[in-house]
Amino acid sequence: MSIHKSKLIPFISKEKIHSRVAAIGTELSNKFKNEIPILIGVLNGSFMFMADLLRALTIDCEMDFIKLHSYSGDQSTGTVRLIKDISADITGRHVILVEDIIDSGLTIKFIRDRLSKASPKSLSIVTLLLKPELAKLNFEVDIIGFEIPPDFVVGYGLDFDQKLRHLDSIFRLDL
Length: 175
Fold this sequence. Notes:
The structure is a single chain. The chain has a single domain (9-68, 81-162), classed as Rossmann fold, CATH 3.40.50. The chain is 22% helix and 35% strand. It has helices spanning 14-31, 47-56, 106-116, and strands spanning 8-12, 38-43, 62-72, 75-84, 94-102, 122-130, 143-147, 153-154, 170-173.
């Protein structure tokens, strides 16, 4: 399915995104200045945010990725399937989980529970976007880039049926 440009409504500009990512990088660099944390990105959506965040850090770090599936089109399937697990041993490590968006909270709960079983020294959650009206979480998200309404958004790694990830800003998709 091809999305016509008129269906894309500007939401968060690339300048606002890059400014916020830089601030998050500074915050993480200060928090972990005497540590070497491992950042774990949630594929596919977090890859742009993760890349920019890594470049914004002033500390040494490692990285890995986890891939899950929980969406079909613009709807959550209600279940989470693990597609690719991390390869790093995170036992006793400072782990920073990097997510593109927290919507219902189902995926982030699944990952948090899974990674916690490996006994990391600490587990911080960083998300670019949070939908507080939808997210049902029984834990805190450490760093939130932007709180947004429950609109469906694309761009900067976020997709609609694997399309529109390439956009350098975030757009509301008017379906």
